[in-house]
Amino acid sequence: MTRIAYLGPAGTFTEQAALQWAATVDDGQTLPTSTVPAALEALRSGAVDAAVVPFENSVEGSVPATLQALLDGAGDGLRICAEVLVEVQFNVLTRSGVTLTDLTGPVSVATHPHAAAQTRAWMATNLPEAEVVLESSTARAAQAVAEGRYDAAISAPGAGPAYGLDSAAEHIADREGAVTRFVVLRKGAPTPEPSGADRTTLVVWIWANRPGALLGLLHQFAVRGIDLSRLESRPTGEALGEYCFWIDADAHLDEPRLREALIGLRRTSRAISFLGSYPRADGHRALVPTDAREDAYQAAQAWLDSLTHDGSA
């Protein structure tokens, strides 16, 4: 049995992602946790075999709780082995018999901060007097409505059946087509084989905040034809104004171009945390310049090996 921790409770988008990934492994069992750090700690301790956590949203960007939890555990052996994409939609969930027209005046509506941001315009138009209360997850908000603590919840549709709630309004996201990217982590697992459509996630700490530091970092990728699908600065927590860089590179660890870039980064950076090379869930294949392909590296290595001490080739 593959035990899979995820950010719970039941009815979250993370549970949906965990179930999607569980279907790809033998006898997957999903286990909810209260927070992202709790899911990762269960993995570190060996209580579970994998953890599924939210990483990035197409509207709101990265999920700070996940980035911080991974940063706090840098060097703990956790590796991203896969990613899952889930289309995000929200419903207004209420107790049985409560309709949208009943939600007038200063009613309380609970949800997660990301969901609140993605439904702000709909709320201003349809429930302008509602007090939006933030919870740790949309499912937790739905659970609180079922317990009678709030009047309604903005939540994933799946939370309705999970907590016996009705949908007073459906598909209320301000923007259609929003997607959340979840990552699957394991401890001590081998890096998946290259698929041809891969992503590598890194955290890089520069030596000092100086002019050209970021340019030098980017140069390591640019000259080797590696596209960066994500670049984000985050505080290191060491001092005000000290930042590290989170990077998603569209290449696999087994590719010579990325290995060469990592050597360059390691020489010129204070520290690097390698979080994994894994297949992209969307199957997108990066465009690799001719001079950055594996055969070009092989030809260059063969030329280097052919050199003699007297300089002839």
Short characterization:
This protein has helices spanning 13-22, 36-45, 64-72, 113-118, 120-126, 138-146, 159-163, 213-222, 256-268, 294-306; strands at residues 2-7, 28-33, 50-57, 61-62, 78-87, 91-94, 108-111, 131-134, 152-155, 166-169, 179-187, 198-205, 228-235, 243-249, 271-279. The protein contains ten helices and 15 strands.
SSE layout and pairing:
Blueprint: E1 2-7, H1 13-22, E2 28-33, H2 36-45, E3 50-57, E4 61-62, H3 64-72, E5 78-87, E6 91-94, E7 108-111, H4 113-118, H5 120-126, E8 131-134, H6 138-146, E9 152-155, H7 159-163, E10 166-169, E11 179-187, E12 198-205, H8 213-222, E13 228-235, E14 243-249, H9 256-268, E15 271-279, H10 294-306
Parallel strand pairs: 1-2, 1-3, 7-8, 7-9
Antiparallel strand pairs: 3-4, 3-11, 5-11, 6-9, 6-10, 12-14, 12-15, 13-14
Helix pairs in contact: 8-9
Which CATH-level-2 architecture of the largest domain? 3-Layer(aba) Sandwich
Examine the coordinates and then state which fold CATH places here, giving the name of the CATH topology of the largest domain.
Answer: D-Maltodextrin-Binding Protein, domain 2
Q: What proportion of the residues form beta strands (DSSP E)?
A: 25-35%
Low-confidence stretches: none
What is the first-to-last residue Cα distance?
57 Å
Listing every helix as H and every strand as E from the N terminus to the C terminus, the arrangement reads EHEHEEHEEEHHEHEHEEEHEEHEH
User: How helix-rich are the residues, as a percent range?
Assistant: 25-40%
CATH class of the largest domain: Alpha Beta
Tertiary shape: elongated
Largest sheet: 6 strands, mixed
Radius of gyration: 23 Å
CATH superfamily of the largest domain: Periplasmic binding protein-like II
Q: What number of structural domains do the residues give?
A: 3
Count every beta strand, where a strand is a DSSP E run of 2 or more residues: 15
What do the pLDDT scores average to? 92
What's the helix count? 10
Query: Structural class of the secondary structure composition?
Result: alpha/beta
